Amino acid sequence: MTKKLIAEALGTLILVLFGCGAAVLMGAQIGMTGIALAFGLAIVAAAYGLGAISGAHLNPAVSLGMVLAGRMSVAEFIGYAVAQCVGAVLGALVLFAIASGKADYTLAGNGLGQNGFGPGYLGEYSLTAALIFEAVMTFLFVTVILGATGPEAAPGFAGLAIGLTLAAIHLVGINVTGVSVNPARSFGPALIVGGQAMAQLWVFIVAPLAGGALAGLLYAAGLTRAED
């Protein structure tokens, strides 16, 4: 179990450092498309590099979906979720240390790729829009993950399918919330940035967990699962 927790922490660090790092360090150069690809490629890297150890959930919403789908225990979920949050914080700290090396960087002005919504945040979408986007997209994301990693799935392609799905979600929604679909990914940067990012964090915990839970329940009921 220790190896699994280390893999989950390291994988989530990769996700935050690559994805949020692309936004903070290279956002002006690569734009939203580049940022979306960075998040997707980070998942591909972690899935193929660490997936054999822990499954590379890297996301409490994914782990919750696995619990409700009957593919992991509650005790494992708790350990995974803690490790994922620790990895996200470490990833955000590394990113902050790098970004701080630029003369005109400020935490308040440039942030760490934290999620958000409303006035002053990207497209200034409403709370309702943020909740709907995060819940629906996490539901779809976890549904893809459960299917791609199921016994009937084509072997060897899960990491690619999952990474491309995350990239697609970012292509749709960066302007809405910055895209979370992952409470740990949101927690790391928000903890360091503080302020509004922490005040809005509940949205990026509640909505993704709800979406992941629904995906797990439908899979367990057989509605989104291939026939055994």
UniProtKB/TrEMBL annotation:
The protein's location, in the record's own words, is: Cell membrane
Record field: transmembrane: 37-56, 77-99, 125-148, 160-181, 201-221
| Ion transport found in the keyword field | no
Record keyword Cell membrane present: yes
Q: Which terms in the Gene Ontology molecular function aspect does this entry carry? A: water channel activity
Its principal location?
A: membrane
> Which Gene3D superfamilies does the UniProt entry name for this protein?
Glycerol uptake facilitator protein
Q: How does it sit in the membrane?
A: Multi-pass membrane protein
Mind naming one GO cellular-component term on file for this protein?
plasma membrane
Q: InterPro entries from the xrefs? A: Aquaporin-like, Aquaporin_transptr, MIP, MIP_CS
Keywords, ordered alphabetically: Cell membrane, Membrane, Transmembrane, Transmembrane helix, Transport
- Protein family per UniProt: Belongs to the MIP/aquaporin (TC 1.A.8) family.
The protein here is known as: Aquaporin Z
